Amino acid sequence: MFGRWQKARPAPEPSIFASSYRLPNAIRYPLNAVSSFLQFAELCDALAATSKKLEKRAFIADYLKSLPVEDAGRAALWLSGTPFAETDPRVLNIGGSLLSKAIAELSGAGQEAMSAAYRRYGDFGAASADLLYGHAPANASITLAEVESGFAVIAEARGPAAKLRLFLDLLRRTTPDEAKYLIKLATGDMRTGVKQSLVEEAIAEAYAATTAAVRRADMLLGSLLEVVALAAAGRLDDARMKLFHPIGFMLASPVQTVEEAVARFTEEIRAEKSGVSEALPPDERAVDGGPDLPSEPSMGLKAAQLEDKFDGIRAQLHVSPETSAANHASRVALYSRNRDDLSESFPDLVDAFASIGEPAILDGEILAWNPTAQRALSFSSLQQRLGRKRPTPEMLRDIPAVLIVFDILYRGDALLLEQPLSHRRAVLEDFCGRWTAATLASDAGRQSDLFAARAEQAFPRLILAAAARLTSADGLDQAYVGARARGNEGVMIKSLASIYQPGRRGLAWLKLKRELATLDVVVTGVEYGNGRRAAVLSDYTFAIRDPDDPEAPLKNVGKAYSGLTDQEIADMTTWFKAHTLEEYGHFRTVEPTVVLEVAFNNLMRSTRHASGFALRFPRIVRIRIDKPVEEIDTLQRVEEIYASQPDKPVDETPVDDS
Q: What's the mean pLDDT in 495-512?
């Protein structure tokens, strides 16, 4: 199969990077080819071929320096893995089905050949290049600017047929090596080992700027195109905050015991440069509904703020008054951790927050909400609204959403990231005190037809997260129990001195949450993974026993793909191939004899699996070679665990989580 394609490959021309892996500073760029997309593709190949960060950075910096500024901006943006800047709302909407049709048309390859190529490389771009040898131009002609123009036209096209035609027009002008990275860029899957942070470092090196200045400008502007232009002109300090592009979320490090939390947090406090006394607020505030903690002092914990860890969707709210709008409503956008725009999925929140009359960026969690009980509904309730761009009026009425906010990153014209949490909390409290009442759902009016005119619907959609001072390890354990009783995942421990570090995970923020339980299950189905696992069976569907159903004694309850080593996965792949019952493309049913122990965070009712349940965040703990299938856990055990959940919703409707 592959031999046929490989023999058709022409001898590649010497790459400008061919001799540069050991001597990155010796790279030279032909002046007549500096803007060709082929050279961008060769750079990407060189980046993928080395694991050395400094070498990658030198490759990128030398390449950027050789280009005109506009082309350098395009290249920097694409090297970060996206065809458009964060502030650019355009999307290509080119999915796997469209790409498969394009490559099949250009290469003449059938489905079997395409599947085999993908399985070999684990990457659609590389597989496509292999299939296109002998069917694509041998000489490069397309430039960076022409690729940018092509993407712009595709983004504007409506419908898959129009997009396919335009993408084919673009691909027909590319060599196989160029096509590889054109496809990778279109899918956002570059696989060069380059992150945006490394591109920022390379920009700094290329234009004699500091990395801190480049990163700050990128955070403020949300566009590497603009950052490169400012860096080349020596004007990075001119960057000013632009709303409506997501700032990276600050992340917390997980801990599973109180002892681990205290030890790690104390280590962080000791490492902080500022003194503990400077981090503490002038008074000890505690919001109603927060954890009730004893005042017994404990080392390091006096410098901590404690919050519940909510079980929803992390979201960043951007709001800014639009004075030119006819109704004088503010512009509102909600972004996920993956930087996806959630606004269309939560029109009830957008409508409510349009009443906020000052610019701000807030960090929080979207939750499904019970306004009568004033507490969150289960994640499975919220899940019914996910994946739907336009929820129905009935959904908006029956599963209303709120945003519980716990941090503020920007207000007015002030960026607050460098301020300690104690200061940001005071600003957030003032902000919520001013605007929470304005977010009453029934007061918004701009989409009032979406809401039933019921008194219980008139509740604020902006809610300030409860916070309290933490003073003892015993208090932390009590707070965890209390948070679970309130239907939340656990607790957050945050240093009052901590600045907001976008995209960073450290010890300044910790999240204490414990696995609900483990189950012994049997593997019933397996499928090939993605990326480097495309050639191995790494995704496992598993079942528990139902001794009361002799017709179907095994009932699926979940699927997991993390927890095993590469060697264990390789061994399991060999075994499952030899014990396959039926094969359906990438998925196969297997003899139910391999027992796994899986951990998970909670259980939900679900129509996806025959058991009627689904595990949330399942992880493989180990292979139970010591346990026969007859001794795996039963449906009764699953029901017991489900009933024991403190955050189990009452009369929960099963969710179709497919």
A: 90
